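Narrative of accomplishments. A recurring question from our advisory board has been how the design workflow behaves on a single, concrete structure rather than in aggregate. To address it, we present the structure tokens for one chain from the evaluation set, followed by the sequence designed for it. No filtering or post-editing was applied between the two.
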């Protein structure tokens, strides 16, 4: 019986995260960039209303108050 070569692909944790982010972005669809500060932007789904965008920006600011 002939045994075939078994190839295993080892993926680093950073590659796993990059792939997860790419898959998530595919599921979200179109996004818009929202500026929090001159150096900070976040991506939000394009279908959100302005009120929903404002609410998410406020949540971001509360969670990252040391950076904003």
């Amino acid at each position: 019986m002939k045994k075939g070569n078994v190839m295993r692909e080892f993926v680093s944790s950073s590659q796993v995260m990059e792939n997860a982010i790419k898959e998530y972005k595919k599921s979200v669809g179109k996004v818009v960039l929202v500026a929090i500060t001159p150096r900070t932007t976040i991506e939000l789904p394009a279908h959100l209303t302005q009120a929903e965008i404002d609410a998410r920006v406020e949540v971001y600011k509360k969670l990252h108050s040391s950076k904003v």
